[in-house]
Amino acid sequence: MDFNLSDEQQMLRDAANRYVREKGGFEHRRAPQAHWAAYAEMGWLALAVPEADGGLGCGFVETAIIAEELGRGLVLEPYVGCAVLATRLVERADAKAFAARRAELLQQLAEGRVQIALAHADPQSRFEIDAQSTCARAEGSGFVLDGVKLMVPAAGSAGAFIVSAAVDAGEPALFLVPREAVTLHPYPLIDGTHGGDVELRSVFVPAEARLSAPGSGLALLEEALDRAALAQVAEALGCMEAVLEITADYLKTREQFGQPIGRFQALQHRMSEMFVEVQETRSILYRGIAHLDAAPADRRRAVSATKVMLGSAGRFVGGQGIQLHGGIGMTEEYPIGHYYKRLLVLEKLYGDSEWHLSRFVEANRG
Fold this sequence. Notes:
Number of strands: 9
Number of helices: 11
Shape: globular
Structural class: alpha+beta
Helix content: 40-55%
Distance between the termini: 26 Å
Order of helices and strands: HHHHHHEEEEEEEHEEHHHH
């Protein structure tokens, strides 16, 4: 794998960095604006959409570049949940009845005209992909869905949901459900984003709403979730780099005993340890990207190792950032504490460290 960015990829990174610095960032986050249309205009929402469907047909490296820069700017918009996860599920939808809607929906996603969220976690499923208590039963010309989905990221802004459900108490399948058909219970998360629980009570959807063909739902879902998990590690990497930069600047300007506190050797050691954690996260992210299209067992092993690294490195870098700032690190007006909260949320989404560690062990046994 070539770790150097091409000229086009470097231009993409520079453009994303400039946009986030000028129009995103912490100050703008406290006075949120509608950035989604701008993301679509700059082509960020079309990166993962195939050229044949009107997208840019880029690889995952471009997606990771955008996710990292958005993490650096601590943005609120659901780029990973919609432009990575939902777009991948729609792109790979293989049910014949859904084919007529697939191209239209991809176009809408690429142009930012609709946001779609995956509603997947059932009560007590603990991140297990095939532990579905939400059920779908065939009825007439479609399906009737019943169940509750917990902790759906960006549920409030979604115009539709992709819902996972066990068909006739059997295999998992995916269904496109309009926002109007469900009962939504939204709530704020600790990092400033919003999630929600989605309640489905005898929701009827036509047969054309089923995305996955019989027998393919589980593999389709797992592959898309792995891509989302890797994109979130890229976003977390951007958060950690920002913490490192902000903390280094603070140590250069904060003075005690007549000199900047960054001259104290103990604090330099702390910064060195934070730097190592960030670089290790970047290295293992590259490894994960290199195995993204490998056989499922190899992909699981690489992605889970990457997500576990995010958990430990995120807590260390974010926590040390607060420690080195002293009391100011805990104030609402200063960004360090918000980066820490965002890192905590990223660690929990799409499988927490404990679950991914177990999956890594299982993959090695296999």
